[in-house]
Every structure is written in C-alpha cells, then in structure tokens.
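Lecture notes, continued. The same structure-token format from the folding unit now serves as the input rather than the output. Read the line below as a description of shape only.
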C-alpha cells in the first residue's frame, strides 16, 4: 500500500511541487505576520517606567469678549503672563502636588499620549533639533 502511494506521489510530482511551493509561501507569509503581531503586542506589554497614577491635566484658557465675565484690563499680555504664573504657583503650593509644569498643547502632545513634538532651537550660530516622543 505504501509502495503504491509513493509511486502515485512520484507520478504526480509536478502538481505536488506546486502545492508544496504554495504551502511554503503561505507558511512564510503567516510566520511573518504572526511574528510582526507578536512583537507589537510584546512591545506594548513592556512597562514604560513611569507611573501615571494621580497625574492630571489642567487646561487654562482666556475669556473672550463674548463672555459675560470678560475684563478688558486682564487682556494685556503682561497681565496675562502674570495671571498664568500666579495660576501655576497656586497649583504648586498645594500639599498633595509633587510637581507641576506648564505645557504648550498646541500640537496635542501630552505626556503618555503617544504623540510627538519637534522644534528647532537656535542660539547664535548653533542650531539644535529638539524632538520629544511622548510614550
């Protein structure tokens, strides 16, 4: 029986070769896809080394003229900066606050958001590209 099966496989070797080649290509592609997915999942499971418990984002805005609480004396740029500094200082003075910092979120990049921010810093003839990746 086995001898007859081997003869049949040998007679149909051309068709079997194409089937084997197709299975080999499918196995290689599946190996690549599964490996790529496994690496992505594994990299996401690695801890970032930062604890974001009790981390908060506080937004600060300026009232417009359409608002009923708008005060024209507060729209001066120097006064606005002093108010921002006062706002930040008051937050830092709370006992439960360990650190507080200002962050420009014009590009939507917040810590632990996965965003990216890049800028160029220039001092005299020195140019430095600063890039920050928010993991």
């Amino acid at each position: 029986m086995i001898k007859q099966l081997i003869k049949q496989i040998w007679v149909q070797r051309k068709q079997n070769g194409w089937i084997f080649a197709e299975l080999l290509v499918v196995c290689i592609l599946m190996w690549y896809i599964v490996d790529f997915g496994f690496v992505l999942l594994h990299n996401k499971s690695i801890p970032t080394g930062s604890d974001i418990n009790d981390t908060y984002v506080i937004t600060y805005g300026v009232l417009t003229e359409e608002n009923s609480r708008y005060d024209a004396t507060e729209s001066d740029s120097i006064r606005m900066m002093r108010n921002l500094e006062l706002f930040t200082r008051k937050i830092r003075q709370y006992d439960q606050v360990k650190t507080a910092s200002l962050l420009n979120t014009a590009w939507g990049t917040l810590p632990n958001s996965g965003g990216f921010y890049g800028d160029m810093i220039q001092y005299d003839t020195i140019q430095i590209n600063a890039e920050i990746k928010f993991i």
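Point for the exam: The mean pLDDT is 81.
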